[in-house]
Specification:
79% of the residues lie in helices and 0% in strands. It is mainly α.
Length: 438
């Protein structure tokens, strides 16, 4: 395995390595799209749980616990990986965990007795997906030249949207929708829906292979695991203590925590808003979600050039401004067509808000603390994940209006943008070095 990693650059060249790195986005996006957000989530709430209401609450609690685990452990894993040097073994561990968790969903029958097992599998799989992202994101500056970080991050993000959508479309066309089901699957026991778990597992595992074969890894640091853990925890503690003095990284992580909470809340409540305010059916919501993902992918790809042209900070500010004003407009329209069109506009700005966030973190993070800081980046995306949903729910009940509740999301975009304004990003074409640019 060591020799294969060393020879990888000679086998495929830089473009091949970039393609192989981006393929992991195509691979892993199948899990959140098909399992966490759409097909299996709906199956759990309507067929496995006692009632849809109980199922929705249980699903939310499982994902919340999963997010809490990521928030606590991601910085620790990142610090440990920086001490050990290599990142692909960690990606392999968490990819394998997510794949096995998805595979296990095949045995979740439409019976409340299987609810707990389903929730454990999904929570573990979702956490593994998030942990894998920490190490995958940290490889970006090693596979992309500094002057193209934005483009590569944006392209990979758009490839991820495309991969999730293709996997979702195939799951629906091949398994969930045909009547009678194809391949001899038994609809009475929901085999035509449960099969999406193994399908995602195969998809994830298959398309992750190029990253392991063709993307070189950092050289290993020859030290015992216990010593790596001790040094990693000490390094993490030092980094956390130093953040107030290194205002740029600390300010960015705070800003990201705020606007990422807005994005996560938008994802969580967008479908509920569509159904409650515009009376959209499940099929219409699914079509809307597909359009949203398509436009988000196009936005990530299109703004990838803008990122390298004017810098990720300005790209994020443009995206947050677009999200604010498009979100403001979508709260006052009355027709389904206007809602759908504005939703597509929102999608265009969602993509660059996410992809430029990754490239800015890659530019700010010094090489020796890169995975550790991407762990803190993951933490900043989860630390206040409860705040947005809680605020939307409280204001909705207080005002007896979904529009009023959803309006609170705009505050997160506005505050995040204001915190970003004074940020000084490293000059384009170079990365932060040894904390000097932090």
């Amino acid at each position: 395995m060591e020799s294969g990693q060393q020879n990888a650059p000679a086998i495929v060249g830089r473009r091949g390595r970039l393609f192989a790195w981006c393929s992991y986005d195509w691979a892993n996006s199948s899990y959140p799209t098909v399992v966490v957000t759409f097909v299996f989530a709906a199956y759990f709430a309507t067929a496995v749980a006692e009632t849809p209401e109980i199922g929705t609450a249980q699903w939310g609690q499982a994902l919340a616990l999963s997010g809490l685990a990521v928030a606590i452990l991601a910085p620790i894993f990142g610090a440990l990986a920086d001490q050990g040097g290599r990142r692909k073994p960690w990606i392999g561990i968490f990819t394998g965990t997510a794949v096995l968790s998805a595979l296990g969903l095949w045995w979740i029958e439409p019976n409340p007795a299987f609810a707990l097992v389903a929730l454990v599998l999904v929570a573990v799989g979702n956490a593994a997906f998030e942990f894998g992202q920490v190490f995958y994101n940290a490889m970006l500056p090693e596979v992309a030249p500094p002057e193209r970080l934005g483009r590569i991050s944006g392209w990979a993000w758009s490839v991820g949207y495309a991969g999730g959508l293709v996997c979702l479309a195939l799951s629906l066309v091949l398994f969930a929708q045909p009547d009678p089901p194809l391949f001899g699957l038994d609809a009475a026991t929901a085999e035509n829906v449960r099969i999406v778990g193994p399908f995602v597992a195969v998809w994830f595992a298959l398309f992750a292979v190029p990253l392991f074969l063709f993307v070189p890894d950092a050289p290993p640091h020859r030290q015992p695991m216990a010593e790596s853990l001790r040094r990693g925890l000490r390094s993490l503690g030092s980094t956390l203590k130093a953040l107030p003095r290194h205002g740029q990284t600390g300010r960015y992580l705070l800003a990201h925590m705020i606007y990422a909470d807005g994005l996560n809340t938008l994802f969580a409540f967008g479908g509920l808003y569509a159904a409650g305010t515009f009376n959209m059916s499940f099929e219409e919501i699914l079509i809307f979600a597909i359009l949203l993902n398509i436009t988000a992918g196009l936005g990530a790809a299109g703004f990838a050039w803008v990122d390298d042209w004017i810098g990720p900070k300005r790209t994020i500010l443009i995206a947050l401004t677009g999200l604010f004003f498009a979100g403001l407009a979508i709260l006052v329209v009355e027709t389904w067509l206007s809602f759908t069109l504005l939703g597509c506009v929102i999608g265009i700005f969602i993509g660059p808000a996410q992809s430029a966030s990754r490239s800015l973190m890659a530019r700010l993070a010094p090489p020796e603390h890169r995975t550790e800081l991407f762990g803190l980046y993951a933490l900043s995306g989860k630390a206040t994940a409860f705040l947005g949903p809680a605020l939307v729910g409280a204001v909705t009940l207080w005002a007896d209006s979904q529009r009023a509740g959803m309006a609170t999301i705009l505050v997160f975009f506005l505050v995040g943008a204001l915190l970003m304004l004074p940020l000084r990003e490293p000059p384009r074409g170079i990365n932060a070095e040894s904390g000097a640019s932090r």
